[in-house]
Amino acid sequence: MDINYNEQLTKGNRLFRAADHLAYVTYPFLKDNKLIIAITENLYNSMIYHLTALLQFEIYYKRLHEMPLDTLDKIRTFQEHCMYRYNFNARQIEIIKDLHNLMKERKNSIMEFCRNDKYIIYNNIEVKSISINTLRNYLFISKDFVRKINLIIQNAK
Fold first, then answer.
1. Contact criterion met (CB below 8 Å) for 12 and 146
2. Residue of 41, 36, 42 lying closest to 114 (CA atoms)
3. Tens-digit pLDDT profile for residues 100-122
4. Does the pLDDT at position 1 exceed 80?
5. DSSP state of 70
6. Of 2, 37, 32, 39, whose CA–CA distance to 17 is shortest?
């Protein structure tokens, strides 16, 4: 079997570093609110790649039987099989779900705009917004998630 979880881990690490750099270096320098959505996308994709890497790791070592195809199924499977086994925080899963919902809302939105250091997504039902401070908080909490997954996979080698 091809060890695909290393590729997922590498992609996730690259995207996480990009999100961190955009949030803490590029955004303060440029002060462009359009970077908020780029940070959000990079952080979301990084979290999904890390989650997928751990699930593939579990499949490789036969602790899990099959890989869910849908992102929400991956999150649910992670909660059921990996969260307590590896002592992950419930807040980290909430962040992944929040980012997933935000990306889904963005996909279905009819209008997006920036105002007062926030990126606002509007559809016919509701208005969602995300600020740079929220994203920095998400990055801070997600660092532990990324670090733990890297340690789990690297210690198995």
1. yes
2. 36
3. 999 999 999 999 999 988 999 99
4. no
5. S
6. 39
Residues in contact with 79: Cβ distance below 8 Å, sequence separation at least 6, in sequence order: 93
Return the sign of the alpha-carbon dihedral for residues 82, 134, 70, 60: negative
What lies within 8 Å, CB to CB, of 16 at 6+ separation is 42, 43, 46, 50, 142, 146
Q: Is the pLDDT of residue 137 over 70?
A: yes
Give the tokens for residue 6: 């290393």
Which tokens hold the place of 18? 């990009």
Write out the two tokens for 86.
């590896």
Distances (CA, A) of 27 to 39, 88, 96, 128: 9, 29, 22, 21
Does 3 have pLDDT greater than 90?
no
Max intra-chain CA distance, the chain: 50
Please list, residue by residue across 112-140, b when 16 or more beta carbons sit within 10 angstroms of its beta carbon and e when fewer do: eeeeeebbbbeeeeeebbbebebbeebbe
What pLDDT score was predicted for residue 156? 86
Which helix (H) or strand (E) element contains residue 3? none
